[in-house]
Design a protein that fits this description.
By secondary structure, the protein is of the alpha+beta class. The chain is built from five helices and ten strands, in the order H-H-E-E-H-E-E-E-E-E-E-E-H-E-H. The longest helix is centred in the N-terminal third of the chain and has 51 residues. Keywords: Membrane, Transmembrane, Transmembrane helix.
Length: 240
């Protein structure tokens, strides 16, 4: 009888204190792994995007302040657009002003002598003209200027005679993509801002004199030049 009671007590305790089986643990871990694999990339992407937004706002503010200081110090070179064949406008003074602004950043490296690729990752392309719906990448040229500032951000002028100013808030780190960690600003005026059609682009009104500010390029949703992958919120991100 005593042996019977001991057996029942043993069975009771085993039921009371029994844990998960190995198969149950493995199934649970598998489910957790699947959920993590599905959500982690999205969380990482959102975190990086938030970092890029903050850095972009800082870059825009820094460049705008440098431009204003350059004007106050009397170093600004007057920008007079010149009409060339094909109805295109170019401004030779853009490159000179870009080089002067770099001094206000305490640049750690400048690349103004046909060596822009030493300051800017060029091989992946940054401006793209679309031909037959396919991007034709434009990398660094002998007319490209670039510099790296004290914070590690890289600044780039595709042509020393054109308005678009590019900044890579990651420096030479990936992904090096416009609309991600690369953004487009431009030399602008009150007139060009007023006539901006939202594209921020190359219409003749944007190539005016009386340059007095730095402005973001317009948002570009579709794939096009200055936004090869589409969905580049150059203006909207600054307003968030």
């Amino acid at each position: 009888f005593i042996g019977f009671l001991n057996l029942q007590f043993f069975r009771f305790n085993r039921k009371k204190y029994s844990g998960f089986t190995l198969s149950e643990v493995l199934i649970t871990l598998g489910i957790i792994g699947i959920v993590a694999a599905m959500t982690l990339p999205s969380l990482i992407g959102s975190y990086k995007e938030k970092q890029w937004k903050v850095a972009y706002k800082k870059a825009y503010s820094s460049f705008s302040q440098a431009f204003l200081r350059m004007q106050e110090d009397g170093y600004f070179v007057a920008i007079t657009p010149q009409l060339v064949s094909g109805g295109n406008y170019y401004t030779p003074a853009i490159g000179e002003n870009f080089k002067i602004i770099s001094k206000y950043f305490n640049s750690v490296k400048t690349c103004f002598d046909g060596n822009a690729d030493e300051c800017w990752v060029c091989e992946s392309g940054q401006a793209g003209k679309y031909s037959s719906s396919a991007p034709n990448w434009l990398g660094c040229t002998k007319e490209s200027y670039a510099f790296v500032d004290y914070s590690g951000m890289a600044w780039y002028l595709y042509s020393n005679q054109e308005f678009p100013i590019l900044v890579d808030v990651n420096g030479d780190k990936n992904p090096n993509k416009l609309g991600k960690d690369r953004f487009v600003l431009r030399f602008a005026s009150k007139e060009s801002i007023a006539s901006d059609d939202g594209d921020g682009g190359n219409n003749n009104a944007n190539y005016s004199g009386n340059i007095d500010r730095i402005a973001p390029w317009g948002d570009k949703i579709n794939k096009q030049r200055w936004c090869p992958d589409g969905n580049c919120l150059y203006k909207s991100w600054l307003l968030e």
